[in-house]
Queue: 3 jobs
Job 1
Amino acid sequence: MAGIVVVFDFDKTIIDLDSDNWVVDELGATNLFNQLLPTMPWNSVMDKMMKELHAQGKTIADIEEVLKRAPIIPRVVPAIKAAHALGCELRVVSDANIFYIETILKHLGIMDCFSEINSNPGYVDEEGKLRIQPYHDFHTSSHGCSLCPPNMCKGLIIERIQASLAMEGKKRMIYLGDGAGDFCPSLKLKKEDFVMPRKDFPVWKLINENRELVRAEIHGWKDGEEYEHILLQIIKTLTMEENQLLSVDCKFQTIPIEALPKVVPVPY
């Protein structure tokens, strides 16, 4: 289905926890993290934590092993594979970081299902330590959105994606998320789009309190089974609608006059 783009958050939408907290806790650095958190922005804390863990002898391999143990929401991987197999374009928009996301998606065998990952830069520097930077460099300029954290406005990312899709002729978007940061992009969706908030999580509360602001069709999910069923049902319904439209277009396709057979007059 070339006209459908599915956009996934990552933490608590593909994996079943917050990846930053998972790495910090599993590597035994929770106390230091809690001490630093009140003193600087989240991204800066995580970058500082990676430096401290490196100084303690933790390696990139150690971080990768922790990430590979991260619990996944049941049925999400089959749902992603099925959506990809049905021809949807899949993208990630996440406030985690590129290194974490790519490590986990590769481990799950679904990295190739995604055409684009939008997240905070995460890379290994020349000293072999992981560096984590903000998506929007809030040190030099603000993204100007009061709904989102200073390092990332997902709404701006969705607007950029929408602009590129319009040029490609793609029309429908499905957005899945759980956190407060997923509310802003939900407001950017159009009436022909769909938003799938995780029930009883921050974005679910915000959407329910501001339903008049959300133009997209809302489908909440509580677990992986419901997630898979709803996502694939939306995709199949949209596919049927597009096939019907294509059928109607074919029936009423105009024929150029030069292609019509010439009528030869019959002599009397």
Job 2
Amino acid sequence: MAAAPPPPAAGGFVLFLHGSGGSGEEIGAEVAPYFAAPELASSVRLSFPTAPTAPIACYGCNLLCCFALWMLCKSCAAVITAWFGIAEVPITAKTVRDEKEVLKAVEYVHGLIDKEIASGTSPSDIFVCGLSQGGALAIASVLLYPKTLGGCVVFSGSVPLRKSFADKVSPEARKTPVLWFHGMADGLVLFEAGHAGCAFLEELGMTCEFKAYPTLGHSIIEEELQYFQQWILNRLGISGITETARPSSSSQHKDLQ
């Protein structure tokens, strides 16, 4: 006899991917408090994996140096956490990544999703989210996953795949809703990259809610996280949650995508 399927896991599952140079622990400290209310303990499970380390040339000099200086410093590679290589700074709407590296990272994320589904979680209750490079990986993973998920949330990210990948996006994946945050003053992942990414998703027939912040740079702020929390809870059908403890200040991320 075939083994009985696992019982459905309670509530939703949020997979959140940090930006390059960061860690799961660091981004978890920012995000987890928004789901810390006692009534959410059994309703929303969170996961904050940490990327492997790799020598990235961009980090051999000051992260916020000008582009010309970065070009001179490419030989000064530093070992940092990164989901895939960083081709250039700043990230623009035309930046091209190493597709093999991106797809390898996507495969890793798909493994985490598959494991969660095997444990009994419905795909419709799974959310793949990320900041900066983590946001780029999140949207790439959702586009190439063969099932409709609960949603994808991108903070200050971009689409790291060429438009030629559109043919590989299944009809099921196109049904996954996307929430996209981006600061118009972002100097590392330019606003044009985020806006173009959301436009590409809409060309695929996907729903992409885009929230722009005129004075926001490359960082994540409380206003975004509050909206993110409510967006997740609404899709899980959870309401009436009381106010939870939140970080006293917003995070200033310096990753390069």
Job 3
Amino acid sequence: MSIFSQSFSPCGKFLAAGNNYGEIAIFSLSAALSPEATESNLKPFLTFSAHDGPVYCLLSTESQLLSSGNGEIRAWTWSELIKKTVKPVWTKRPDYKSSLEIPEINAMVIYPRDDTLVVGGGDNNIHVLDMQRGSFKSVLQGHADYVHCLNVRPQEAQLLSGSEDGSVRIWDMRTNQSVHVVEAHKYESCARPQFGKWISCLTSDCDWMVCGGGPSLSVWHLRSMSPTSVFDLPGCQRRAAFHQDMILAVGDGAYVSHCLLGSEVKAQIPVTPQSLNTLELNSTELQVLTVAGSSSHIDVFTNPSYRAFSLSF
């Protein structure tokens, strides 16, 4: 079993995880973190079949859990899931060019300025869903291959997208136009031809962007559009996140890398899976980090410097 995706509930007390068999598991973090926790508290209190194929992405809104699979997005109400009631509120499918085309949906983000859901995947396009009306309102076209990751900069009205084609595109969400293209593989300091050019992880903070995949994980200044730091990490990175004064990154290898903005890899913290697909930070009162990948275990960190325990799917 591989775990492809995770998402915390809005209150932060519950964690959802999706696997390659189309299942979603719901865990009670508050029960698992309790001093009186037992083995049963480390297992899901609810597991259900969500999609026919893998669950590629999970995302929480104020009231719903959104899941994506092959060609479709489904919404589940958190209040009902907590009661162990499993029934999708809605199922949406982007307007694909062909009815025979069933591309996976790899990434989803909420664009908060107008309450839209932005999704990207295997048809090379980015689809924008009006959450109020329940219909897709626009398509952002420009990538030449699969879209793997998305990130929003709401204050700048921008969306960032990373693709198999080796580019990070920056979109103006007011015009739906691509305004900048970053190609890390064309920079000697970032290029790793042996791994390819694809971009699999992407995040931003103020004027800074972090991206990686085939190219080395690197920090970019978004005003100058140039790399300022490149991290010497083996293998490919699949997720990255800014946390306090460092960047957390996961991918090939059984560890979470702690990277400082000045190119130094400060530490690599051991984990249970041999490689990792997903990393999530819970910013509510529970404040935990969870990582998962090529096993049925989800490692939970109450401090980024050590693994506290593992949940079992």
